[in-house]
Design a protein that fits this description.
Helix content: 40-55%
Oligomer: single chain
Number of strands: 9
Strand content: 15-25%
Distance between the termini: 47 Å
Shape: elongated
Strand order of the largest sheet: 4-5-7-6
Radius of gyration: 20 Å
Number of helices: 10
Structural class: alpha+beta
Length: about 200
């Protein structure tokens, strides 16, 4: 269970020095520090369940979400998340894994995300369409549809069958929100391939 320093100190208020007691509990492994002011009590919790609490507002996306949905074959060991108006990429190395956060345009931020609940934790993850748009937003612009196809199928290794399952209408709406050549090209490319 996630707990803040304030929550734990309140629980330990009966001790002469709650902060010293917290230090001892950390040394004993009862509380695992994640980032300043945030602790976890469960050693086995999957890192993706913690991503939104470490830095936010954010949602899981990019490579992590693409792997989560089976769009790419590789296992992803970094929990990649999208933020907005933070200006800088953030990286946190914790006992639960490496967490990275990078900006996408604010107008695109809230569209195409899903809230999931698992084992008493809730997390927010991009839809497959949104994760792919986020991924394309962060790479250098392609010049034409041939380059886009090469980027998607060869460089990113997107599964072609899974690509065909994407909701073209959702990608079309997202394309208007990103202001990205890559995302606009993806929208048109999918429309041609699916229709």
């Amino acid at each position: 269970m996630l707990k803040t320093t304030g929550m734990i100190l309140e629980e330990l208020h009966q001790y002469a020095s709650p902060a010293d007691k917290l230090s001892r509990l950390v040394k004993q492994g009862k509380y695992i520090p994640i980032v300043k002011g945030l602790y976890e009590t469960n050693h086995t919790v999957p890192g993706y369940l913690l991503a939104g609490s470490i830095y936010g507002p954010s949602y899981l996306s990019f490579e992590f979400a693409l792997a989560y949905y089976g769009l790419i074959p590789e296992a992803v060991y970094t929990f990649t998340s999208a933020t907005f108006e933070k200006k800088k990429k953030k990286i946190f190395k914790t006992a639960f894994g490496v967490f990275t956060y990078r900006d996408i345009p604010a107008p695109a931020y809230s569209y195409g995300v899903n809230i999931r609940v698992e084992g008493g934790y809730s997390y927010i993850i991009a839809s497959p369409e949104k994760a792919l748009c986020d991924q394309l937003y962060k790479v250098e612009g392609v010049k034409n549809y041939q380059e886009l196809g090469h980027l998607l199928l060869d460089d990113l290794r997107i599964d072609e069958q899974e690509l065909q399952k994407l909701n073209v209408a959702d990608v079309s709406v997202l394309a208007q929100k990103y202001g990205s050549t890559n995302v606009r090209k993806l929208s048109r490319w999918l429309e041609k391939r699916v229709t």
